[in-house]
Amino acid sequence: MFLYQIIILSIIQGLTEFLPISSSGHLILMPHFLAWKDQGHLMDVAVHVGTLGSVLIYFWKDVLSMITGFFQLLRGKVTKGGQLFILLCIGTVPAVIFGLFLKRYGVSHLRSVALIGWTMTGYAIVMYIADRFSPDVKKGGDITGPKAFWVGVAQALALIPGTSRSGACITMMRFFGFERAEAARFSFLLAIPAITAAASLTAYDAIKAGAFSSVYKDASIAALLAFVAGIVAINFMLRWLRQRDLTPFVVYRLGLGGFLLYWAYYL
Questions:
Q1: Distance CA 222, CA 4 (A)
Q2: Whole-angstrom Cα distance, residue 266 to residue 166?
Q3: pTM here?
């Protein structure tokens, strides 16, 4: 890939991973509208690894607390960090199951403009309903195992491009009545095991097939750039949701979704 392509893809991934507008959808759309060759799953995973680093650094205190809490769990002691670790594990299970299903039956048919148009539009409506009519009554400490599981189900459905992993998780938590910033925080933390699992599996397949050596330089640059953009996006999103709602993102999704449907069926 050319350097400018890597830069564009990395910045788009870093920003859209944490804004509820679908990073995977935007990564798929870039080659369509800029006449590029599809960058493939390996480059997609590389930029996702960069945004994983963003979460680990931005929420380093929570990450450290979870690591400490994990070892405390092994000793039979439950701490806040240990509870958060358990909740993230519960929330990751649906995505792992659905991800293995998609890997078995193929995902190439999901990388279409029409599908992204429908998911952009449909989830915009669901997001607006959840954000507009759900009360802000719950804090992060109110997350339970069953709620974490259903947020995980929403995250699993976001494996379909155009859905948005962060958007789906935030939407589900809004239905449960969580404050916007608290919903975003848990959504971002839930990205840690999800991206780790997906990246590990894809990297293993690439190394096994001998494909990794040909793109590792491009992938490294992409991951670094996505990391920087991700830090900016996380900070922006949390600040925004402490004072404002999700309406601008709903409007963006509806506009983009409508354009994509017109493009897919009439152009």
A1: 11
A2: 30
A3: 0.91
